[in-house]
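Protein modeling request. Please complete all fields; requests missing the sequence field cannot be processed.
Requester role: graduate student
Desired output: 3D structure, token encoding
Chains: 1
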Amino acid sequence: MLPTPNSQESPERDLTDASLREERERADREMTANRVVIERDADAVVEHARENADAVVVAAREKADEKAGETANGAELHDIQTAIAGDRESEDQALRDERNAADRSLRRERETRARLLTRLLPLERDATDQYLLTERARSDDALATRDDFLGMVSHDLRDLLNGIVVSSQFLAQKLEKHGDSAPLLIETARIERYGTRMNRLIGDLVDVASIDSGKLAMHAFPGDVATLVAEAVDALQGSATARGVSLQVANRQGPVAAEFDHDRMLQVLANLISNSIKFTPKGGSIRVHCECVGETFEFCVEDTGEGIPVAMLEAVFERFWQVGKNDRRGLGLGLYISRCIVEAHGGNIRAESSPGKGTRMLFTLPVSSAHSR
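Delivered output (373 residues):
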């Protein structure tokens, strides 16, 4: 049993410990079985050698008896045979005693070796476990320090960015009163976009750190799924229009009740829609819709963009995944974070696409968490 004091609980560590225990149990069984087989084979070799030696002795004795019978008369032969029989019995008994002593010594040696192995192996494993625990404790400390540092830095950076954005908005309001302010208004708008983007990247890094430490918080409350979809589309309508892409809700419907973390699910929809805007060329379109499908409530963001190769449909949900190594349109964390959020709600997320034919990003919530009013 692997102890886990001062270690953070995680499914990965539980799996590692369970796998290590199973591997040790399997090794113990195989070691015992191998030892039994080796000892049995060794005993068989010794027994075979003894049988051959006995056969040689018997043959030699028979030959000696034949020669004695040819050279001696009846009375002499009987005396000789009696004497030889006594000597042979003594020799046989001495040989049996010697073999029994050798067998006892071999058994003791085997038992001693087995006891030593039984004692030493747990000590070696305990030492390995202690090394593992020490390494985990150091890793936990490093992660905790990193998370604390990242939290402080992200808080300070966000304060600074918010100050930049507010100042930019203030300048834009002042500049609107001047007739020649168009170029400056463009620059202030650019500052706002850059600030917003930096804020989003910082948020992604903080979320990944929370996921790694098992602290990604979810707070589910009753809400309206249809309103959630409309809110996400409205929030990104300006970005889509700026890129010349049509963005709309495909099947507007009445209120649909569900229990979910509003901000996190809005984050998922925003990530999916933002990706579609990013990879859909000018003149393309994006449709967002949701509906009940069997035992789940399904959301879909469908675009007419460049598409994703079939071999990459699962890879896009990995952390730091990029379309290409020179792509700098994000950190490649949005879909990874989205998957973690959706799975925390009991749903799943997937991509359907082929190059040149657009992409459909779909995620679900269980019916138990989402149903029509």
